[in-house]
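Subject: GST N-terminal domain-containing protein structure
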Amino acid sequence: MYTLYATPGTGSTLSEIMLALAGVPFAIKSVDIYENPADREMLQRLNPLTQVPVLVLPDGTVMTESAAITLHLADVAPQAGLAPPADHPDRPAFLRRLVFIVAALYPTWAYGDDPGRWVSGDEAKAELRRSTDEHRKVLWRQMEAAAGSPWFLGQTRTALDIYIAVMNRWRPRSEWFTAECPKLSAIAGRLRADPELAEVWQRNEG
């Protein structure tokens, strides 16, 4: 059985959705990475960055980083369609956008959510938050320009659509996506309407 260390509403939601779609047995270990020092200490032993998701494989191997977990589950459960097969024409585009999300988009929250970790002084903190928020919008517009329909890569749903649906609720929030990135907003809406995932959304977003 897989064990997912997760904090509701965070990036661990991505891995929880993928585990559900993969159809593999898994358990969730809820951790409060913000308010519970004991949880943070325990998580740090598994992941020195003290971040979720952390996925413990059935053989005890520890995996971190959502993209790595995505590719692992795509290999374990190819029937779930989390990633195009290696010889599929969509594979290069999938890999490009997956890495773009985790390497370009994700850091805008890492640095902007808690600017006091990186800079000192109220003015510098406010500017870091503002600049990362604005840069994120630029990056999302690039994703919008590349998006297909009904899913990001066209007719086939992949893990890219899961990232879009989860992150749609993070800054700049779903209202901004509706106005500025309608294709991405529609993708998020389609995934959120999947009854198979209703329990996951309820657990993570209430």
